[in-house]
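Sync notes, pocket subgroup
Present: LS, DG
LS reminded everyone that the earlier model was apo-only. Rerun requested with N-acetyl-beta-D-glucopyranosylamine included. Inputs:
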Amino acid sequence: LQYNSFEDPRCEGYLEDGRTGMSPSTLKRAFLNNLFYVQGKFKALATPNDYYMALAYAIRDRLLQRWINTAAIYTAQGSRTVAYFSAEFLMGPHLGNNLINLDIYKDVEKGIAEMGLNLGELLEQEEEPGLGNGGLGRLAACYLDSLATLEIPSLGYGIRYEFGIFDQEIEDGWQVEITDKWLRFGNPWEIARPEWAVEVKLGGHTDHYVDDHGRYRIRWVPDQQVTGIPYDTPILGCQTNTANTLRLWTAEAPESFNFNAFNSGDYLGAVYEKVVSENISKVLYPNDDSSQGKKLRLTQQYFFVSCSLQDMIRILVGQELPLEKFHEKFAVQLNDTHPAIAVAELMRLLIDMHHMSWDSAWSITQRTFAYTNHTLLPEALERWPVELFGSLLPRHLEIIYELNDRFLDEVRIKFPEDDSRLSRMSLIDESGERYVRMAHLACVGSHAINGVAALHTELLKQDVLYDFYQMYPGKFQNKTNGVTPRRFMVLSNPALTELVTSKIGDTWIKNLGELQKLEAWADNPEFQQQWRQIKQANKQELAAYIQKHNGIIVDPNSIFDILAKRFHEYKRQYLDLLHIVTLYNRIKANPDIEITPRTFIFGGKAAPGYFMAKLIIKLINSVADVINRDPDVRGRLKVVFLKNYNVKLAQRIYPAADLSEQISTAGKEASGTGNMKFALNGALTIGTLDGANVEIREEVGAENFFLFGLTAEQVYAKRASGYNPMEYYNSNAELRLALDRIASGFFSHGDTELFKPLVDSLLHHDQYFLLADYQSYIDCQEQVGLAYRDQDRWTHMSILNAARMGKFSSDRSIQDYCREIWKVEPVTITLENSEVTDS
Ligand code: NBG
């Protein structure tokens, strides 16, 4: 159906105001209607989930008008559109965010209260769509928020995993993974669009043949086919009418699945095939920053990319645009290499399906894609064994070989007689078993390549993508990450939002640079007092949560020293632990020692197969058990591990933090985004010169940042000259005592084997230079403790940290992408019809 075939796409006059109006009374009526007509419940039988659903549907109704108008206007205007391709979107709960962006949070809170209910409790009911592992997926979600807020026509394309990131339980101190059945109670935020289903081929072989016109052609003869069904979720901008779309694909067996098996009477075999098809979108791979080369993972990547590109061609054709204009209609961003197969898939679609010449197809492809790299870790760089790749995507492998031949010719011309360069840059790694290198495919197929923080981009140019930088210096750009202040301040820290707004107005919500005006208040005693009171109240709330979930009583007057992120050796949770054990040892040795009381709070998941990361979680819990029970340290140290760190929990944590731990080995963390969210909420950072910490420190001022540790350059130099961690162990008594305590079984009921792998890995390898940075970290923490004792000084620093976070809004990041990579302009969405019908 074409919108312009209707006189009024919103069918105005037919829609009741009670379903869409924003007044408190219509909202209330809609809520009660939904409870009755959608949930089929009345008050006596209604569960909290029924109330949540009734409210969610009432709010969804209020998004629809914006959503439909947005689609209608983009269609009518044929707007240039950003397609953000990402295997992960870590959206977090929708309801609260939509209330904020619609600017009706307070009204709804009041209306719900008048009905004797509590909005906070209803919000708690929402199962968050955890369709991502960590920073990469959450960045995609922040970017969708900013794209909509900035009124940029855009689509997020990804996978609707039936099971998102696992739920983490802690049993006897160990992480246990539970499947995340997030769709259990239904998902009110999505609308299935089976009418836009697409077919995706897999496996088989290729046929080379001559067509009726005597032209040489290639045909892919797959041995499996799956159907992709799109599910759309509206993404509302803040205080704007724009509602963009997140389109996630579910895999289903085609209607007439495996007719061969049917014909041969193998009915059960055919049904089995159906199950295999549906497995494709079953579960998110729970690895952050590492790649395992599993066939199902490649299938997932190809599946969503093929669905999305076919969908985009459908949109293009629907707008009567020729395929030659694909790159004018769409700018595609590849979020890491997970969707990099799109380069070969677009070539295949243009050449095989739409009979375009190689050269035209290649020119369109390169002008369409841009690639964001998110990691410097070698184990995270995706490569697929050629044989596996060819068995799943035989045609794509041919295309990649052809691309590679042409590409290597280009390299030869630019760098004659340089065979080692050719083998380094080849799309195929032939040093041993042969692999397809996805980062190389992404670099060759894109017109822009970016890192996610200034330091990261520099290191990409110097190291990981050095050859590509020499080959195509003009493709490289930096786009420092950002976070959305809507979710991570307005929604999660309402008290601070109100205080800030009372002083500088509310324009900072869409223009975070305005926070700078707070600097004028940084030394105002009354303002400082209010700032502190809010932090204190937020800490009390987190303390109540801790008491409820961990049974531990913590002191809101102590420093809330928080490390919350995925568990990985390079992120060095273990270094934080060495500090804790050091403080503990000091108190045990000298019970009267003065130590600023601290509560150490950890949160984060470990990849299920990552032994060391899981052992560190166990060690944290073991140390917590001993310290929290030891009367000698009472009132001074507490250690808490909060289970199941996710977006919901993050929203509770950031507002309550005094100290943000950003302590990765320099040169390892591409950017970090938690670092920005903590600082925005007034936490001070203790950190290394890594990722975006460098820029955060530049913005807030060196005097407002606790810096320690080696620089990336020093780390490289040390590694090159032969690093020996044992030297540090031998020469540092406190370090030795801390490690010996862990090794001695002190924290493991006398078991000296349990933590041996952790201690040994530090003493003999210490890949991430914990021992090299230990003393610097301990000294810096001492400064933190002293600074906290001067509350006026601390508050001054805290205010300045928040006030200087303007650069780290995802709005700024998105504006940079729009201007420097995507070349796309905002499109204003009105709620009147006139614009919709003019086409
Ligand atoms: C992560 C980096 C983080 C960065 C996010 C978002 C991957 C592969 N990379 O440092 O480790 O903040 O991406 O860019 O998950």
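DG: The longest strand covers residues 224-236.
LS: The CA atoms of residues 500 and 664 lie 32 Å apart.
Action: DG to write up.
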